[in-house]
Sequence to fold (214 residues):
Amino acid sequence: MSSTNSYLADVLKSMAQATRLKIVEFLRDGERCVCEIFPAIDEEQSNTSRHLAYMQTHGILSRRKEGVKIYYAVKHPEVFEIVDRATAIVKREVEMRSELINVMERG
Amino acid sequence: MSSTNSYLADVLKSMAQATRLKIVEFLRDGERCVCEIFPAIDEEQSNTSRHLAYMQTHGILSRRKEGVKIYYAVKHPEVFEIVDRATAIVKREVEMRSELINVMERG
DNA sequence: TTCTTATATGACTATACAATCATATATGCC
DNA sequence: GGCATATATGATTGTATAGTCATATAAGAA
Fold:
């Protein structure tokens, strides 16, 4: 299923980037419009717009139009679960590495 | 915590690529040496070696030397959980899109 | 219709990434 | 030491990606 793998990779890529992670974090509280998102994550409007489009195209964000404003939201709860598990990995890695440093310092 | 975001992104990037996903899938059954991995996933030895190094550097694979052979294994169970959740997203997306096509075909 | 605000996009630059080929290094065996 | 096998890496190429700036488009308000 290598074609499936390519869709899988695209979904994961939609989260595997610092700016996009900031967007996902900000959307934990629910739907937000672009004009709220880009100041909150401290990125340019155009850059934010591109990332939002990318994430929507790859199926992890929903998009809703209301007048001039466009509201984006995280579409699948698994997105947060994935970020949380990746965070757990980072945390454990940091712990493991600092333990290793302690062991080395003791000789 | 934007510096944390960058580590997080790196961990997710370690899975967000078709060849690396093939490696993760193959390692579901446990530790394997490079000489078993690259024929199984049908990639060049050198390319496989680079991806394995990348994944180990970013903390998602462990590496063990035994004679000439190097054994790699998935280090954190969360890696599989992440892939499984991403798979669930892809599956749901495919379902949603095919439903949409059905609705459109009915007018 | 004109102005303002919100969002998207074209053109560009710089950087990162994946893959390949050839070669280097390491280990064990004879 | 010389050879075979396993793995890693340098050099290169082509492609993808992130970010920026300027501009286009769309909607609503005056």
Remarks:
- The CA atoms of residues 33 and 70 of chain B lie 5 Å apart.
